[in-house]
Amino acid sequence: MILLIGAPSVGKTLLLKRLQNTNPTTLKDDVPATIPTVGTNLMTVNAMKKVEVTVREVGGAMGPIWQNYFKDSHSLMFMLDISKHTQVAISCVQLMTILADPALQNIPVLLILNKMDIPGGISHSELDSLVRLSDLVRHASQKITVLETSAKNGNNLDKVAKWIYEQNKLDEAVIT
């Protein structure tokens, strides 16, 4: 199972709804309505080559119990809202705590820097200097992939779909 977590209102549900579409980068003006996730949400998304993959989203308000879902996950997507400077700092602390969890030491992680379309947000280079993102990626026990996205307008959602597809292929190889 792929697990998707992040602070409240970072765009997790919108990302998954956009990925349910066969081509998430189309219909940029047709943004699906969302409501905050209370609890968990299982969603089947279309990865590449018409492969459907189930992703478990855990609501941002459930941060204190995210670790209860780690043992059932083979991949992790962690989403940050880079348009809110104060939330980025809090999310980085959450990310460091998550990466240190023993249950997640060897699983791949996709760090999604969402809302890149909003002016005034923190840039990738600012984030890199703030949390030493490149050092984190280089030295973490997990393989970490970083993508800047906009769930709202579809930027780079094809790359998220590709990452999900690759994780699903790896999971299937382990099962067989």
Which structural traits does this protein have?
single chain; 176 residues; alpha/beta; 6-stranded mixed sheet; 33% helix
Task: Set out the fold topology.
Blueprint: E1 2-6, H1 12-20, E2 40-46, E3 52-58, E4 75-81, H2 85-99, E5 109-114, H3 124-131, H4 133-139, E6 144-148, H5 157-175
What does this protein structure show overall?
The protein has 176 residues and is an alpha/beta fold. Helices cover 33% and strands 21% of the residues. The radius of gyration is 15 Å and the shape is globular. 34% of the residues are buried. The model has no long low-confidence stretch (mean pLDDT 87).
| Main β sheet profile | 6 strands, mixed
Strand content: 15-25%
What is the SS-derived class?
Answer: alpha/beta
Count all strands and give the number: 6
Count of helical regions: 5
Overall shape: it is globular
Helix fraction by DSSP (H/I, runs of at least 4): 25-40%
Q: What would you report as the Rg, rounded to the nearest angstrom?
A: 15 Å
Task: List low-confidence stretches.
Answer: none
- Placed side by side, the strands forming the largest sheet appear as 2-3-1-4-5-6
Element pattern in H and E: EHEEEHEHHEH
Termini separation comes to 15 Å
Nearest-integer average pLDDT: 87
Q: What's a concise summary of this model?
A:
The chain has 176 residues and is α/β, with parallel strands linked by helices. Helix content is 33%, strand content 21%.
